[in-house]
Automatic annotation (TrEMBL):
SUPFAM superfamilies, sorted: Acyl-CoA N-acyltransferases (Nat)
The name this protein goes by in its record: GNAT family N-acetyltransferase
Record keywords: Acyltransferase, Transferase
Listed InterPro entries: Acyl_CoA_acyltransferase (IPR016181), GNAT_dom (IPR000182), N-term/lysine_N-AcTrnsfr (IPR051556)
Length: 133
């Protein structure tokens, strides 16, 4: 599955298809990344990938990546942000809920190579102003 979605070739193909990747560094080390893609009609922005290394977890980097994605929505005047998260990843589901995402329902989809995506679609409405503004 990593070769299908996370290999250098897969990421290059995603970038060619409109995805934008962002790397996060701290003290000269990569600690995470984010991949965003806007839907065709500009009404939603999908977080395709959000990842923080084990060493970077607990340092607020996930929140910073999420804040950045929300700022991208505001800059592009996109009213909603969404992502999918595995149903069994209860820690991440809880974190996204704390970050203001709502569970919009289940998605079960064959993604090839013997893998089935069994996720929740999580959505968040983005205000046109940053929090506190």
């Amino acid at each position: 599955m990593l070769a299908t979605f996370q290999s250098e070739q897969a990421i290059a193909g995603q970038i060619a298809g409109g995805y934008t990747y962002y790397l996060v560094t701290h003290d000269g080390q990569y600690v995470g990344y984010l991949a965003l893609v806007e839907n065709a009609d500009g009404t939603t922005l999908m977080i395709s990938k959000i990842y923080v290394t084990k060493a970077g977890r607990g340092g607020g980097f996930g929140r910073k990546l999420l804040d950045f994605a929300e700022d991208v929505c505001r800059e592009r005047q996109i009213p909603a942000l969404w992502l999918t998260v595995n149903k069994n990843n209860t820690g991440s589901v809880a974190w996204y809920t704390r970050m203001g995402f709502k569970n919009a329902g289940a998605i079960v989809q064959d993604i090839g190579a013997g893998f089935v995506m069994d996720d929740y679609r999580m959505e968040k409405t983005i205000s046109s102003h940053a929090p506190g503004v």
